[in-house]
Specification:
87 residues; 3-stranded antiparallel beta sheet; elongated; disordered N terminus
Length: 87
């Protein structure tokens, strides 16, 4: 699978469990559950950009995880964090 030229999502994030819609300003305030570094995604997806991570946040209504593409942080993962995870 080749992802072509993916970009950071700008459309509202929809919760798969309860259907809640989170626009960009709401998305930024949701609790971060996990960030998956580009290096980890590259293990599964061909040609994944080095500056694109996956960010998982909890739905405000039901708490279900919602994953979206996000810009990878410029800093390195926290020392002692699991490989490929950005803490």
């Amino acid at each position: 699978m080749n992802v072509g030229s993916p970009s950071v999502a700008t459309s509202p994030a929809l919760c798969w469990q309860c259907g809640a819609e989170h626009v960009a300003t709401q998305w930024a305030t949701l609790q971060v559950v996990e960030r998956v570094a580009p290096e980890e995604v590259k293990r599964l997806v061909l040609n994944w950009p080095a500056d694109l991570a996956i960010e998982v946040r909890a739905c405000r209504r039901c708490g279900a995880p919602i994953a979206r593409k996000s810009a990878a942080p410029a800093t390195s993962p926290v020392e002692g964090a699991a490989p490929g995870r950005i803490e």
